[in-house]
Each structure stands twice: as C-alpha cells, then as structure tokens.
Design the sequence.
C-alpha cells in the first residue's frame, strides 16, 4: 500500500467520452467511486444502478466495457493509460438484441 | 403406525415427475405425501434445461405421451402462473448439409403424420426465425409446439399447489424400505419413521432402480451424464430452442460413449444454455473441460456471435435412462400397490404432467388416455424358464 503522502502519478482514461485523470494503480471501480460515481452499471430489467457489490470478482455487478471488451469486472481490473471505458446498460451486449 | 399416518398414496421423490404425480393425485382428491431424501428438484430436475419437446421424438409411444404432456403443460402454464417461466417458444432443428436436411425432412414428415405441427424452413428462411444463425446451413424444421420451462420453479409450484389441496411434503427424509402386508404395499419405512399407504409411487428419477431394489425388485434405470454450459446474461438474441439434426440421433443412440450435439436456447434471465452431452459413466461428477469446450465450440458454429460471449459456468446431471429409452410408468405386477414413474431420460420435464396424470388415472381406477403397455415396469423381466 503506498504511503498516503507519496506522490501518486495519474493516468488518463476516457469514461463514456469524458477524460478522467485518475491515480495509477487504482482499480477501475476505485476510479469510479473516487470520482463520485458509486453506481455506474444499470441492471438488465429495472435499470437500477450497480457498482461495487462484493469488490472481489464474485458478484459481477460492477461490469464495464474496457477497450471494446464487454463484461469486464471493474473491481479486478486496474486502470491503464489510455483506457477507453464505457458503462453498460443492462448487459454490454445491447447490439445483439433482436 | 397410527391412522393419522395413513395416506392414500406416498410419492417418493420431489423432482419434476414426483411433483407432477403429487399434483395430479391431489387434484384427484387423494390424500398424498411426498417423501424426498434431499431438497425439491435437487437431482436431475435441477440439472436440466427445462425441455418440453415433441421435435426430438419419432412417432411411437413416447411421442404420444409427449403430445398429451404438451396439452397439459399449456394448462399448467395458467395454473402455475408466470413464475414457472413456461415459454411456448418453439423448437428449430437445423441441418448442416443436404444429406442431413433430407433425413430431417423425412423425420418431420413422419412426425406430421403422427399429428406433430411441423414447418419446413428453407436456408433463406432461417435468418427470419433466428437472425444470428450461422451462414451456410441447409435449412431446418420449426416445431411450434416445443416449449421451455424453468423446471425447478415448475416442480416447486406444482408441489405448492398440491399442498394447498392437502398434500404433505416431507423433505430430507429417506425411504429405506417398502412395507408390505398380505403380498401388497402397505406403506414405507423412512429414516425418521414411516407412513402407511395403499399405493407407493417410485418417482426417484435416476435413483429409481436403487429405490426398487429396496423393495427387492430389479428395475434397470441407469445414469446418462450430461453437461450444460451457461453464458453470461445477454439481451434476447435467440428466440427458439435451436439444435442440430444429429441431436435426435444422439438421443436415441445406444452407445455408451461420449456424444455431443449442441442445443442452444436463451432463458428468461438472459443467460444462454448450451447442452447437451451424453455418456454413460455412472454417477461420476468429475468436470470435463473437453466436453464443456466442445459444447461451446458447437454452439459457436451455430451462432458465431457467441464467440465473443463468456461462458460463466457449467453444470452436470444424470439422466435416468432405461435400455429401450422409454420411461417406466404404471403398476408393478410383482408388487401390487407399487407404481413406477421414472426412467424418462432427458425428457422428464416434458413428460412429467402426462406421467402424473397417468399415475392419478391408475390410482383412481380410471382409463389411461394412452396405452401403458410400452411403459410397463415388467417389460425388462427375462421370460421365466419352463
């Protein structure tokens, strides 16, 4: 765990088209929470907000699309410079609906 | 045993078949108890896809039973309510090439003669039915009568409805012996006591042979293992139960070896289920990534878009099969009062209502709507030597 006082380099990512500068080494989920977004995914049926549920990769509530890969668990995935992240409404597969 | 322990019928097993027996027996006005050593739908019922199919059945006794069952399932859809997730979605069987197509068309023509609703679909018509199907398929047959249900919910809802009619559900209690008196069934002995009853229904599924053995009787019901792969949830992108024509051949096959043919369908919760493998390996629960991988690959050949979708889990179960692939339904002449309702292999969910209905007809001395001879429990007996 880094010291609180240690300088923390940032990385630049894009979230739903907006540029965010977030601490390197944080998870995508941590970045959302730190930016004041506790719920970033909307559930499939009732469009209720979801974010960190278990925080350890089990609940699949925190899914986001990262660089085109859908259904990525934000709690297990660290931010990387240049990441393009889009939030998911329902599943990330809306384009497959018939 | 006191009179308060007397039931008209004891049903052994709270899977889909036991639940259906209980439901129809209770509706016939009989005093019923269901005894289950585990939980509701904890065996094969909880390990399947919820198939209610006429499409995979050739003309004959099993198809007749399935046709009765389809009608009963339609009524059950209303009686059990939306939680059963009964979907009259129809089945679409697709042919990979011209030869398969011809076999499929012939199979469907024979089914049509037997009263099955069939609609042949040319190669260009497939996409209208299933937009994500692969290129190059030779056509298929649509079976509008095929349905899907959430089998665990359906079993639980049938048991609840039966309980409302006065049936008793006893879980985590195991039948250890069938009691007899004067050469006929008098009740059951269980892990926690016993019940007296004039009729006992063996609905123990894949474990029905083991149960019969506790009554000193041989019944050749054996396990046929199957895996099902589950994808991450998706929006509705597959409308029907879609499978390849060689599935029918595999279902009917007598081989003990591994057979895999993809059956792909969406569920109400969004996950896509990918079955079905068949092999005779006893009650071996060992995971097989080879089988799971093959199932997934076959599903991708049918629906290429699934290549970009994750499989999130798989499960396995044991179909109760008999040597002639027909269920065992009816009175056991070797022990008056003992009825069997088991051995449905992969069709137990589909055939459950007809089975329950038949059992209730027998229990109340009424005429069955189909001939019971093909399902006779005594059919496996070696002819006695003179």
Sequence:
């Amino acid at each position: 765990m880094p010291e609180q006082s240690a300088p923390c380099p940032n990385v630049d990512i894009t979230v739903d088209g907006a540029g965010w500068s977030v601490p390197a080494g944080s998870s995508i989920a941590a970045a959302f929470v730190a930016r004041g977004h506790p719920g970033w995914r909307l559930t499939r049926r009732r469009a209720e907000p979801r974010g960190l549920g278990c925080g350890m990769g089990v609940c699949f509530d925190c899914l986001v699309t990262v660089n085109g890969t859908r259904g990525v668990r934000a709690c297990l995935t660290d931010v990387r410079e240049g990441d393009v992240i889009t939030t998911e409404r329902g599943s990330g597969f809306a384009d497959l609906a018939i | 045993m006191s009179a308060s322990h007397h039931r008209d019928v004891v049903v052994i097993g709270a899977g889909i078949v036991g639940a259906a027996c209980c439901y129809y027996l209770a509706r016939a006005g009989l005093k019923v108890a269901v005894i289950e050593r585990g939980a509701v739908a904890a065996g094969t019922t909880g390990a399947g896809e919820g198939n209610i199919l006429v499409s995979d059945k050739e003309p004959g006794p099993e198809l007749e039973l399935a046709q009765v069952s389809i009608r009963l399932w339609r009524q059950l859809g209303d009686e059990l309510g939306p939680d059963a997730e009964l979907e009259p979605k129809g089945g679409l069987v697709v042919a990979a090439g011209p030869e398969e197509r011809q076999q499929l068309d012939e199979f469907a023509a024979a089914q049509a003669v037997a009263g099955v609703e069939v609609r042949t679909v040319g190669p260009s018509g497939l996409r209208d039915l299933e937009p994500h199907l692969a290129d190059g398929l030779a056509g298929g047959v649509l079976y509008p009568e095929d349905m899907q249900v959430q089998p665990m919910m359906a079993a639980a809802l049938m048991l609840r409805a039966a309980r409302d009619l006065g049936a008793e559900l006893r879980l985590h209690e195991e039948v250890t012996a069938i009691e007899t008196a004067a050469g006929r069934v008098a009740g059951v002995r269980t892990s926690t006591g016993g019940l007296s009853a004039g009729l006992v229904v063996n609905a123990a599924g894949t474990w029905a042979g083991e149960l019969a053995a506790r009554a000193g009787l041989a019944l050749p019901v054996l396990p046929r293992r199957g895996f099902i792969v589950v994808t991450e949830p998706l929006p509705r992108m597959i409308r029907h139960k879609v499978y390849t024509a060689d599935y029918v051949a595999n279902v009917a096959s007598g081989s003990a070896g591994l057979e895999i043919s993809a059956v792909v369908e969406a569920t109400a919760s969004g996950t896509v289920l990918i079955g079905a493998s068949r092999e005779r390996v006893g009650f071996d629960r060992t995971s097989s990534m080879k089988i799971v991988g093959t199932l997934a690959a076959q599903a991708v050949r049918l629906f290429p878009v699934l290549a970009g979708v994750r499989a999130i889990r798989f499960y396995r179960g044991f179909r109760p099969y008999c040597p002639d692939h027909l269920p065992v339904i009816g009175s056991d002449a070797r022990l008056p009062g003992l009825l069997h309702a088991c051995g449905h292999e992969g069709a137990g969910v589909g055939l459950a209502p007809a089975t329950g209905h038949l059992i209730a007809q027998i229990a109340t001395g009424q005429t069955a709507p189909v001939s019971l001879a093909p399902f006779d429990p005594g059919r496996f007996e070696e002819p006695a030597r003179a």
The CA atoms of residues 8 and 31 of chain B lie 5 Å apart.
